[in-house]
Structure prediction request, 228 residues.
Amino acid sequence: MDQVELGSRLRAAREEKNLTLRSLASKIDVSSSLLSQIENGKTKPSVDTLYALVRQLEISIDAVLGLAAVSGPETEEFRPQATFVLQSAEEAPVLEMENGVRWERLAVLPGLDIEALRVTYQPGAASSIEGRLMRHLGYEHIAMISGELSLRIEFEEYPIRAGDTLAFDSQRPHMFLNPGSVPAIGIWYVFGRKALNNAASHYPEQPVDKHVERLNTAVDVLQSFRES
Prediction:
């Protein structure tokens, strides 16, 4: 996706919420100048910044990508409106993030509370440009296809290699980093973000402790898509 188009959609969502540039920047803990550059397509957001934006603007990644949102009633009896989806490689929506991080949206039945994507971290890329741990709603399930990532959850670090699978609560502070010399590619599924967002709508998401030790590395990637 063209970053000018991405910035335009983020700006439209901010204006629809009647938020000033400064107030939104303050809410997501970035400078007004950085947010302005993102909205004007002059720079790309990091993964944690984009996640903070869609959280504050109450929009989905699908909305950012310009895809029609399909929702269903929030009942256990709900069944998706479609029972088969085929998405060709040429049709896959893609977001290129800072420093060689790439999100590619995968096919998901509309209306389900599942986010799916193929994620690529180029060598040195991390999920935060500032090395900050991030947290968000949902439960991540990951299968590494190739390369290697380092996952930091709170104060523990875990190597994730090709063939490994893992799952964790995304509300635990975490960060991904590619410490290797080749791209790291994996498949991500995030479950339950919509339901948890509805449950948490009466109170703000808690920030990650800023005293947590930072990792000084490159820049970005990871995280998810949701059918509104």
Remarks:
- The chain has six helices and nine strands.
- The helical segments are 3-16, 21-28, 32-39, 47-57, 61-64, 193-199.
- The longest strand covers residues 114-121.
- Confidence is low (pLDDT under 50) at residues 70-76, 202-228.
